[in-house]
Amino acid sequence: MTVAETKGGDHAIGPADAPVTLVEYGDYQCPYCAKARPVLEDLVERSDGKVRLVFRHYPLDSVHPLARRAAEAAEAAGAQGAFWPMHGLLYENQDDLSDGDLRSYAVRLKLDLARFDGDLAEHRHAERVQENRLAGERSGVRGTPGVFLNGAPYNGPLEFEALLEAVEGELDRPDGGEDRAVRRVGPGSLLDGLDDPIAEICSEERGVDNRTLKKVVELAVEIAREGREGRKIGTLFTVGDHEEVLVRSRPLILDPLTGHPDDKKRVKDPDMRETIKELAQLDGAFVVSDGGVVVSAARYLDAASRNLDIPLGLGSRHMAAASISRNTGTVAVAVSESSTVRVFDEGGVVAEVVPEVWMLRGYGPYPGR
């Protein structure tokens, strides 16, 4: 495979004269970018010289605070001819992007550490990263991954067969593809129109990290499916903007999570998930930060709103979920005692998840995933 390390230009793999160019705007903390990376690279590898892939940085600072620093590290590695190896390491280690982690990857790649450290300390490649981000904004990118095929936004799933079909269509197209459909590069809602109930695009629109939201929905599905001690239970989560949620809520009882360190309260931690399942039997809501820390439990949400867009028949828990999502920059996830999980954004229901369907589609920590 041809690898092009350019100075002042784009980082690309594949022949410079390939008839089809894919441009990806990506973020190193975006899980969907990590999922797309091997698919896109495999497409280039198997295209017999017909496809070139260009990567440009699009760090989502408000939801992925380490992504811009990681992008600068990738550029620092690129300055030493190792952009793509660093690119791969960053996506393979998304949960480990501290400065110490970045330096360890530089050590693994046998880079000149003094030069690498200096590049990061002086932000020598910050302008390049920002130029990429601004170019993406001008092209209409609002979330990641944002993918373009020969200059047109790609309309379709980031799966090998779908991409291959799009490439073959482009190769067969005599008119340059002026009537191609446009991919949604800016989300309408977090859960708009995709097969996955958690939209496979990361966005700053609501300031909610999709990875955290997906983990919370997975946990909510587990609670809806399993109940506790043979009985169905309902509960409520808020995700993102936790400080404002705390202002607009009050404890129903002494908070059982008070005093525990944040590293023990992450929603992805198996012990924390089991603790949440036990505490879900209590009244009140769990408040989850954008970074995935369960900062509080058993909270009464005091965020009444009018003109909420929710179906008739939903109870007070769902009213509270709709209201808190209307009044704060948060997404609410409600588990009903009828075992349905509903996601609320901007005061309305944006998704309903039936646990059995979710499981059949392969989402969540269940066998067959």
What does this 3D model show about the protein?
The chain contains 12 helices and 15 strands. It folds into 2 domains: 3-172, Glutaredoxin (3-Layer(aba) Sandwich); 206-360, DNA integrity scanning protein, DisA, N-terminal domain (YojJ-like (1, 3-Layer(aba) Sandwich), CATH 3.40.1700.10. Strand 13 and strand 14 (341-345) form a beta hairpin. By secondary structure, it is an alpha+beta fold. The longest helix has 17 residues, at 210-226. Strands 10-12-11-9-13-14-15 form a 7-stranded mixed sheet, with helices on both faces. The model is unreliable at 4-8, 176-186 and 364-369 (pLDDT under 50). Helix 2 crosses helix 5. The chain has helices at 31-45, 67-78, 83-92, 99-108, 113-121, 126-138, 160-172, 210-226, 242-247, 270-279, 316-327, 355-360; strands spanning 3-4, 11-13, 20-26, 51-57, 143-144, 146-149, 152-153, 202-203, 235-239, 249-251, 285-288, 294-301, 331-335, 341-345, 348-353. The protein starts with a strand and ends in a 9-residue tail after the last helix.
**Would you tell me the overall average pLDDT?**
85
Tell me, what's the shape?
globular
Number of domains: 2
* CATH topology descriptor of the largest domain: Glutaredoxin
The assigned CATH architecture of the largest domain is: 3-Layer(aba) Sandwich
Poorly predicted segments:
4-8, 176-186, 364-369
Quaternary structure annotation: single chain
- Through-space gap between termini: 31 Å
Helical content class:
25-40%
Strand pairing plus helix content: what structural class?
alpha+beta
Number of strands: 15
Number of helices: 12
CATH superfamily descriptor of the largest domain: Glutaredoxin
Sheet-strand content, in percent, reads 15-25%
| Order of secondary-structure elements | EEEHEHHHHHEEEHEHEHEHEEHEEEH
Strand neighbour order, sheet with most strands: 10-12-11-9-13-14-15
- Main sheet record: 7 strands, mixed
